[in-house]
Design goal:
By secondary structure, the protein is an alpha+beta fold. It is built from four helices and seven strands.
Length: 137
């Protein structure tokens, strides 16, 4: 028994957390690693993720031209459907980071590997994102 368990009055089984949710899209996220993740600032149960190729550094360098020619995606997930993203945002440039606008969450800004900043207005999909719970969550 560790000192931490004794100190907090728990046992080892009290410290094991169960997975709450996982998201997998066989077309867009299979065999990839997460590059960035962000919660929707105003719609509960919505999270957005961008992925990158799961490669070692040397392989990434060797395949860099192919990777840069592959469109980059941001998948916006709702807790109600863990295998189908609610929205897919696409850009021809490799996305390094993105963020929902904290004062207007319908605007998503992304920074690309070439220094370009791109933005999407997802306001036409707001109702779908807000209603994602009605599909089973």
């Amino acid at each position: 028994s560790s000192g931490i368990n004794a100190e907090y009055g728990g046992n080892k089984s009290d410290n094991n957390l169960k997975e709450y949710q996982s998201f997998t899209d066989l077309e867009f996220s299979k065999n990839k690693t997460i590059a960035h993740i962000d919660w929707h600032p105003s719609i509960k149960g919505i999270v957005a993720v961008t992925y990158t190729e799961k490669l070692k550094y040397d392989d990434r360098v060797d395949l860099s031209s192919r990777i840069l020619m592959t469109p980059s995606l941001i998948l916006i997930w709702g807790f109600s459907d863990p295998i189908h993203p609610q929205l897919v945002l696409e850009d021809p440039e490799y996305i390094l980071v993105f963020k929902f606008n904290p004062t207007d969450p319908n605007i998503v800004a992304a920074g690309c590997i070439n220094g370009q900043v791109v933005m999407w207005d997802i306001s036409q999909h707001e109702a779908r994102l807000k209603n994602h719970k009605s599909n089973g969550a």
